[in-house]
């Protein structure tokens, strides 16, 4: 599903990624590890389609509407409520039975009671959960998660564990984590950055 | 064979020959007009202006190559072309201003459409460099500069139209202008001067491009060494 | 096709709703335009004609628009919210159109106050001027949105936008002032329409490249 040959990306003069080769089959789970600044985020952003390569080739066999991305920013509008945020993305992704799906996700992530509160009132953990909801809203077949466990409290982390386990068979994953052992059991492939 | 390997010196040589010829023609061949010596500036001013347009057009074309065909060298070529265009544009303003001074006694006049147009374009393309320097090298900078270059080339005819329309309500001081009806000999001189300026621009373009590519290569090698 | 406009509607509504909640851009534009008109009163000596004041109206509009445009992509860039929109399956140009429409909305609101204020402070506004303002707004917002996205991509974004925008605004000013002061406004309105058509098309087509990283 994902193929990279000599993939490289530079920012100005700095080469953040260089000569990355990758082959991930559909249904696989790629765990990317490495220290901060080693290019993990850049790789994930390339795969999600937020960056274009400056060297090499990258092929991702999933259309944009089937890709779910969770990055360092939650990508929610502060002045909009949780419900409005998900409704916005739900419309953009043309999610079928939008209202029901949003309601279901909000409940699953323990945000139902806060659904009419503006995102700016949310704690960091709640924002991350809302962001997760955003990423999963359109039932993606490729999930690109950049340190999804960061900012989550124990409850949130347990929630994420459950989601990952449930979605494991239905989607392909590319995940980075500061705590790789947490998801190591799910991984089929590993990529370590120096 | 020699020609292909030594394109830049050949171009420079051609430019030198053409320019020297045109200078000779301007001062010794072309008939002296009632303006006297001042009219000779015209043989520099207009070819320089045309050359500037050509550079901006070339820059826009290369910009299109960046966006459409994604040609790897096109961004640098677009940048260098626009750089040359700004240089020739500045020269246009200077020669135009000199011409106005000798002819009408003022350093600037709003009644000369070409001059006003070049002022607007000079501002526009100067902002190009502001834009370029505010961005890190990469795909986004290439794209943005290419789009801006295309906006510029569309702006040229629209601005010209605007300047013409503005004259209706601005009523600039109407100087007595002679229509540029050129006699054959004048036209020939003009053409040689134009060819010379274009050759000069092409030579400068190639030289700058070589220099910039060398810089780029050097940087890449240094990166590879460190990286 | 209807999906395209549905996306545009969703995004434009989002921008309007955000402004309604944050209430930062439109009030600033309103205050700015009134203040600018007052400054112009002090800047025009007694012998200045009524026409000079009309010209100044256009200066006020252009700079008020700059204020609004400067805010257009700030949130998208600072919190990387643009990523959310780029990930979505909508056409990039739909983002441009939605943003253009929302900035247009803000500018029109500011003008609904500015034009009566101008009539109060200086002289009456005729139909040709209003038509000129309407057409000029389209061009300002179409071009301004692309340039705002460019400016915000680099450093020194507040400084860059006016530099990029003002040369392109010169034809708009010519069209607008011409429509306001001359006896043949139709000519100038036609010119504004031409500007709008040409620049809207290249803005629409080029936005995709402007947001690609």
List the helices and strands and how they pair.
The complex is a heterotrimer of chains A (194), B (227) and C (213).
Chain A: E1 2-11, E2 14-24, E3 29-33, H1 40-48, E4 55-60, E5 67-70, H2 82-92, H3 98-108, H4 124-136, E6 142-146, H5 154-167, E7 172-176, H6 180-183, E8 189-192
Parallel strand pairs in A: 3-7, 3-8, 5-6, 6-7
Antiparallel strand pairs in A: 1-2, 1-4
Chain B: H1 2-5, H2 7-29, H3 39-69, H4 74-104, H5 113-133, H6 139-170, H7 184-226
Helix pairs in contact in B: 2-7, 3-4, 3-6, 3-7, 4-5, 4-6, 4-7, 5-6
Chain C: H1 2-22, H2 25-43, H3 50-72, H4 74-78, H5 81-87, H6 92-121, H7 127-153, H8 157-181, H9 185-210
Structure at a glance:
Chain A is α/β, with parallel strands linked by helices. Chain A is built from 6 helices and 8 strands; from the N terminus they run βββαββαααβαβαβ. Chain C has one domain.
Gyration radius of chain A, in Å: 17 Å
Q: Low-confidence parts of chain C lasting 5 or more residues at pLDDT below 50? A: none
Percentage of residues in helical conformation of chain C? over 70%
How many strand units of chain C?
A: 0
Q: Give the overall silhouette of chain C.
A: globular
The oligomeric status of these chains comes to heterotrimer
Question: How far is the N terminus from the C terminus of chain C?
Answer: 26 Å
For the record, the count of structural domains of chain C works out to 1
Task: Give me the count of strands of chain A.
Answer: 8
Look at the helices and sheets of chain C and give the structural class: mainly alpha
How are the strands ordered across the major sheet of chain A? 5-6-7-3-8
Count helical runs of chain C: 9
Order of helices and strands of chain A: EEEHEEHHHEHEHE
The major β-sheet of chain A equals: 5 strands, parallel
What Rg of chain C is obtained from the alpha carbons, in whole angstroms? 17 Å
Q: What proportion strand of chain A?
A: 25-35%
| Fraction of residues in H or I helices of chain A | 25-40%
Strand content of chain C: under 5%
* Mean pLDDT, all residues of chain C: 93
């Amino acid at each position: 599903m994902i193929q990279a040959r000599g993939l490289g990306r530079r920012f100005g003069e700095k080469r953040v990624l260089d000569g990355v080769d990758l082959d991930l089959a559909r249904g696989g789970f790629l765990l990317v590890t490495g220290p901060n600044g080693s290019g993990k985020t850049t790789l994930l952003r390339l795969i999600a389609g937020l960056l274009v390569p400056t060297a090499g080739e990258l092929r991702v066999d999933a259309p944009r509407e089937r890709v779910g991305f969770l990055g360092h920013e939650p990508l929610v509008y502060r002045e909009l409520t949780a419900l409005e945020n998900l409704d916005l993305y739900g419309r953009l992704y043309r999610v079928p039975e939008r209202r029901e799906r949003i309601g279901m996700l909000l409940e699953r992530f323990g945000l139902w009671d806060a659904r009419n509160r503006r995102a700016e009132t949310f704690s960091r953990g709640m924002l991350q959960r809302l962001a997760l909801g955003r990423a999963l809203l359109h039932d993606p077949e490729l999930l690109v998660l950049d340190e999804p466990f960061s900012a989550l409290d124990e409850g949130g982390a347990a929630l994420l564990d459950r989601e990952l386990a449930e979605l494991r068979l239905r989607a392909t994953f590319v995940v980075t984590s500061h705590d790789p052992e947490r998801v190591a059991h799910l991984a089929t492939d590993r990529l370590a950055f120096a | 064979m020699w020609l292909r390997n030594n394109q830049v010196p050949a171009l420079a040589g051609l430019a030198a020959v053409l320019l020297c010829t045109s200078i000779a023609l301007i001062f010794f061949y072309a008939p002296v007009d009632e303006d006297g010596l001042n009219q000779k500036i015209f043989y520099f001013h207009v070819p320089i202006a045309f050359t500037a347009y050509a550079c901006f057009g070339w820059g826009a074309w290369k910009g299109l190559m960046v966006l459409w065909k994604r040609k790897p060298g096109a961004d640098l070529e677009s940048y260098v072309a626009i750089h040359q265009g700004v240089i020739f544009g500045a020269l246009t303003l200077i020669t135009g201003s000199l011409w106005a001074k000798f002819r009408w006694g003022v350093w600037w006049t709003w009644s000369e459409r070409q001059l006003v147009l070049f002022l607007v374009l000079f501002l526009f393309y100067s902002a190009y460099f502001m834009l370029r320097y505010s961005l890190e090298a990469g795909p986004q900078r290439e794209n943005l500069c290419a789009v801006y270059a295309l906006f510029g080339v569309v702006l040229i005819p629209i601005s010209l139209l605007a300047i013409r329309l503005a004259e209706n309500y601005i009523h600039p001081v109407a100087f007595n202008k002679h229509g540029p009806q050129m006699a054959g000999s004048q036209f020939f001189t003009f053409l040689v001067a134009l060819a010379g300026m274009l050759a000069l621009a092409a030579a400068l373009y190639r030289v700058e491009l070589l220099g910039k590519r060398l810089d780029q290569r050097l940087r890449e090698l240094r990166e590879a060494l460190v990286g | 096709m209807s999906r395209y406009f549905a996306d545009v509607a969703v995004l434009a509504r989002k921008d309007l709703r955000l402004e309604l909640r944050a209430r930062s851009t439109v009030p600033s534009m309103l205050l700015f335009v009134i203040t600018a008109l007052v400054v112009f009163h002090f800047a025009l000596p007694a012998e200045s004609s009524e026409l000079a004041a009309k010209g100044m109206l256009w200066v006020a509009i252009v700079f008020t628009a700059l204020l609004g445009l400067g805010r257009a992509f700030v949130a998208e860039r600072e919190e990387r919210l643009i990523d959310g929109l780029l990930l979505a399956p909508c056409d990039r140009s739909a983002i441009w159109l939605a943003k253009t429409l929302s900035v247009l909305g803000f500018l029109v609101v500011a003008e609904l106050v500015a034009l009566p204020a101008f009539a109060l402070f200086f002289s009456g506004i005729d139909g040709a001027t209003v038509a000129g303002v309407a057409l000029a707004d389209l061009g300002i917002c179409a071009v301004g949105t692309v340039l705002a996205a460019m400016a915000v991509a680099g450093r020194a974004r507040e400084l860059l936008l006016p530099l990029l925008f003002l040369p392109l605004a010169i034809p708009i000013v010519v069209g607008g002032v011409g429509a306001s002061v001359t006896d043949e406004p139709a000519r100038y309105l036609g010119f504004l329409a031409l500007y709008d058509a040409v620049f809207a098309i290249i803005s629409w087509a080029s936005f995709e490249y402007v947001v690609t990283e």
